[in-house]
Amino acid sequence: MFVCPETGASLEAWYSNQADVLYPSVDGIPVLVPRPYDFLRRHGPWDPTSGVAGHAQDILGVDAPDAVSPFLAPSGLGASGSFGDWLLDLGQDGPDAWLAAQAQDAAPVGPAVDIGCGTGPMAARMHAAGRHVIALDRSPDAVLLCRALLTGGLTEALVPTHRRGARMMSVPVRPATSGLELAIADARHPPLEPASMAWAHLGFLLDVLGPDDVVAALVATIGLLPRGGVLTLANAYDAPEGAPNLPDEAPPGPEMREVLAELGMTVLAERDKVPHVTRHYDRRFTVRLVDCMVLRRD
Questions:
Q1: In this structure, how many other beta carbons lie within 10 angstroms of the beta carbon of residue 211?
Q2: What is the tens place of the pLDDT at every residue in 9-41?
């Protein structure tokens, strides 16, 4: 299913004849990015002393406060007081839950891809819905952790409870024994065949990219969908750094909708101001509002 990210040509034993590149792997997960060896020298996990002179190693970390919280519904995050009551009222509600429910009904039969998968909360929902799932992320650490969480390699993880404490929590995911593939990849160059995915997801990715990269990621992702294929987007507003209050910027929906229309996408459903709650420990939470969109390729 994977192809060379530079040429789109098929791979044989991770070798691309057209690009003359043997793609490496990290603990069995293929590194399918353009110029993969330069990428690994810059971003690990190779020894930085083996890198090219002048290339400082920039580790791409995991964008999650802990391994378990991204999989929990708001009602399971464990806050207290009036804020905890608000989370209980939200129940299972959240961007991933809403988007997954919408897409499962709207997307045609076929595989799904989670681009920028992080620890894999949406990939887990896609798999639970019966899809063959491809999970991609640019961070080697994120992909390795995603595999461990989704396949049962890690069943418990430490979760911060306060500034100097933590407790073990069970990973709330049914392990996938098949139907899951992972790769280290770039959203601008997904290593998949055109029109091969029934459902593609970009979650909390476009809001951290520059304008040119946003367009490149959208064009590449939409190219993975056949006519009738479904794209789900979760775009968070910017929030004050470290502050558990609501963002003050305008929602990205109208401008994003114009770009997507030009790329041949029709909005099937949209929901604004969906709360996305991040728990850093039991007494510190950050709330971000999210614009959620479900679109079909014309």
A1: 8
A2: 999 999 999 999 999 999 999 999 999 998 998
Tokens representing 71?
């999989």
- Give the Cα separation of 19 and 35 in Å (integer): 10
Task: Give the per-residue SS3 of 140-163.
Answer: HHHHHHHHHHHCCCCCEEEEEEEC
Q: Tell me the DSSP string of 155-214.
A: -EEEEEEETTEEEEEE--SPPPSSSEEEEEE-TTS--B-TT--SEEEEES-GGGS-HHHH
Place of tokens 């055109």: 194
Residues facing residue 28 across a β-bridge: none
Domains of the chain: 1-59 (no CATH), 69-297 (3.40.50.150)
Cite the beta strand spans of the chain per DSSP E. Answer: 15-16, 21-22, 25-26, 29-32, 112-115, 133-137, 156-162, 165-170, 180-185, 199-203, 230-236, 265-281, 284-297
pLDDT tens digits, one per residue of 95-127 = 999 999 999 999 999 999 999 999 999 999 999
The one-letter amino acid at 80: S
CA distance 271 to 253: 9
CA 80 to chain centroid: 29
Q: How far apart (Å, rounded) are the C-alpha atoms in residues 126 and 201?
A: 10
- Interhelix angle 140-150/121-128, nearest 10 degrees: 40
Both tokens assigned to 245: 């209050």
Question: CA neighbours within 13 Å on the CB side: how many for 152?
Answer: 5
List Cβ neighbours of 266 (8 Å cut-off, separation of 6 or more).
295, 296, 297, 298
